[in-house]
């Protein structure tokens, strides 16, 4: 039996908004999760990501959250392009259209470019969190699957289903990233909640031994932060970040802005060699500047 999404998301098929009347042509599926299904679509020459929700209420709440954090003049502005309903097999299905982010998962990025990139990625992710926190919200379900990394460590967050107003109960979470799972605090939307998940995200991506899958199976009384400290001792990049990670895990940062300042100071103090990062554009810029310099000499003195 063909499901509504097989029909709606077949490459080449058109999705027409019932209320706004905009038409999108499906290129291909990008992914599916517990809340919805996402496709790469085209409108004219522009490409977008279109997400159709399984549950109307959850879907609407995701749109509202996205709208709320994009009201301020920040990088989320204009992320949400359209929100409408489509009719598939006689049924109304809600969808929203957002910016299409080209990139890879955090683990793929690190695997390809090296663990040192975590310094840049971490700094960019902290900036994103700060923007959300300044809007009066927390991201809630921060995890590697909810971010896309592109170019030179640029970070984009996707999946806004967990975004929660500060002070409210966290509405969507993933076990190992949740401080409640580790008995390290309440499931309340505070900046420190996201910062705990941020620390787990970094540790998980640096852990060669993939211990986090095992943690899910442990009994609550056996989930100790000592397991995480072991990763900090074994991995040189995690060891550099240990003072930051420990503070984030223990809820010692009140705000993400405070955490960002600490991050920068820590890495400046440790003299993290950004030059060790493989930055091809530096080489390109260097070659370009040599060429321009040569051309100028030729034009003026030739
Ligand atoms: N804006 C975007 N640009 C590019 N790809 C995207 C975008 N939004 C989502 N995706 C892709 O679609 C997949 C599913 O999206 P999303 O995580 O929002 O679904 P979900 O149902 O909320 O998932 P979960 O079960 O993790 O809650 C993502 O893993 C990602 O690969």
From TrEMBL:
ATP binds at residue 51. It comes from Paenibacillus pectinilyticus. The chain crosses the membrane at residues 281-301. This is Serine/threonine protein kinase. Pfam families: Pkinase. InterPro entries: Kinase-like_dom_sf, Prot_kinase_dom, Protein_kinase_ATP_BS. Keywords: ATP-binding, Kinase, Membrane, Nucleotide-binding, Serine/threonine-protein kinase, Transferase, Transmembrane, Transmembrane helix. The keyword Heme does not apply. GO terms for molecular function: ATP binding; protein serine/threonine kinase activity. Residues 24-282 form the Protein kinase domain. PROSITE patterns: PROTEIN_KINASE_ATP, PROTEIN_KINASE_DOM. SUPFAM superfamilies: Protein kinase-like (PK-like). It comes from the Bacteria. The keyword Ribonucleoprotein does not apply. One of its GO terms (cellular component) is cytoplasm.
